[in-house]
Design brief:
50% of the residues lie in helices and 16% in strands. It is of the alpha+beta class. A hairpin with a 2-residue loop joins β9 and β10. α7 (240-276) runs antiparallel to α10 (358-368). It comes from Sphingobium herbicidovorans (strain ATCC 700291 / DSM 11019 / CCUG 56400 / KCTC 2939 / LMG 18315 / NBRC 16415 / MH) (Sphingomonas herbicidovorans).
């Protein structure tokens, strides 16, 4: 990448960081939220300010092209300095991942109808793939998908149930994944674009979860005789599993970017506390037990930054980077959880209180160790790769 483009990315990241620190952090005490996340009235107000400041959807250029993954890391980390930052700047999940997928796969008409409003911060989206575990549905293993779509009289008819549908309540459209049968009888999956609200998609309940940063929460959704035209298909029929990988590899990494920003902020708060708080005749940071925890945090944050850059470089090189994204997701999520845990410990009672965002960052990163694939699933996948390569060696 040319130096001028790198300079532009750094300038964008600086503007996003300034906006997040000066404009968005004060909103962290705003009462417009429920148990699942900020209300849309709050999100809309913050996005209006981001639009005015020129930092709305900052990782996508005016012509629709994306910054490189390496440059995106700087921008998303800056927005992640507050749990509200990604929502304000339109760099949040699942919208950011959905924008990436639509940009790669959608038709021109689909981009006008779905991508353009999302890019402009007008509404939210959701991604419907996971299904209820109690019913044996798809989770980390998408081959277990039970939601079915069948072609009848020129329309696709979809029936099933989805779970952990993040942001379904209040979303303007969904990317819905369903199992479909190829002409040869082999099983495939197809993605559909569904405008919301839709009478055939009914929210049965909201799942109470440890995290609280997602507007609309995580829903269980019943899909009852949903009828869709062929024009609703995203990409080609039966290629949904392949498209999921197009979306998931970068999305795992952008999660890492945002939560690196949040953990960085939590560490700043913990360090400030340790410098000011006195105990046993001196500042907490001068007690070796506390000072060493903060030193470990500094080391871990730098290691996460380097891991993200390594994976971003693989994606920028045109590789699918499934392996790299699994390694990065495991390493960063587990490491940042240790960082957040130390921040809570350094701050004692204040660390588990709602007086700062440290306890929220702890909860959110705990959930991140599961979302987009639990650590153990990624390790299992990596172990299989290690076995294949070992057996292939002479």
């Amino acid at each position: 990448m040319a130096t001028a483009e790198k300079d532009d990315a750094r300038a964008i990241a600086r503007r996003v960081e300034q906006f997040t620190r000066e404009t968005i952090i004060p909103y962290e005490t705003d009462g417009r939220r429920d148990d699942h996340g900020p209300l849309d009235t709050l999100v809309d107000e913050m996005r209006a300010k981001a639009r005015e400041a020129g930092v709305l959807t900052p990782h996508i250029r005016a012509d629709g092209s994306h910054l490189s993954h390496r440059d995106t890391a700087q921008v998303l980390r800056a927005s992640g300095l507050s749990p509200l930052g990604p929502l304000a700047c339109n760099t949040n999940a699942p919208d950011e991942g959905n924008m990436f997928l639509l940009g790669k796969v959608a038709t021109p008409e689909q981009k006008r109808a779905f991508l353009a409003p999302l890019h402009a911060g007008e509404g939210r989206s959701c991604f419907l793939m996971t299904e209820p575990a109690a019913e044996g549905g798809a989770g980390s293993d998408p081959s277990m998908m039970q939601t079915r779509a069948a072609l009848q009289d020129g329309e696709w008819v979809v029936n099933g149930r989805k779970a952990f549908a993040t942001g379904f309540a209040g979303a303007t459209f969904a990317i819905l994944m369903a199992r479909t049968d190829r002409e040869d009888g082999a099983a495939g999956a197809t993605m559909f674009l569904v405008p919301l609200p839709h009478p055939a998609l009914v929210q049965e309940r909201l799942i109470g979860t440890i995290d609280s940063s997602m507007p609309g929460g995580h829903a269980v959704v019943k899909i009852d005789n949903l009828r869709l035209p062929a024009s609703s298909i995203l990409g080609a029929p039966h290629e949904g599993f392949a498209y999921a990988q197009i979306r998931l590899a970068p999305a795992r990494l952008t999660h890492c970017m945002r939560w690196l920003g949040a953990a960085t902020r939590a560490n700043e708060i913990a360090a400030d506390y340790a410098v000011k708080r006195q105990a046993f005749g001196k500042a907490l940071i001068d007690h070796e037990g506390v000072g060493f925890m903060l030193a470990d945090n500094l080391i871990d944050l730098k290691q996460c930054e380097l891991m993200i850059d390594w994976c971003a470089d693989a994606l920028d090189a045109g590789e699918m980077a499934i392996t790299e994204s699994s390694i990065a997701k495991v390493s960063v999520s587990e490491t940042l959880f240790r960082v957040a845990d130390r921040c809570v410990q350094v701050m004692g009672g204040t660390g588990v209180s709602h007086d700062t965002i440290v306890e929220q960052v702890f909860r959110e990163i705990r959930a991140f160790r599961i979302y987009d694939g639990p650590t153990q699933v990624h390790k299992w996948s990596l172990a299989k790769k290690i076995k294949r390569e070992a057996l292939a060696r002479p």
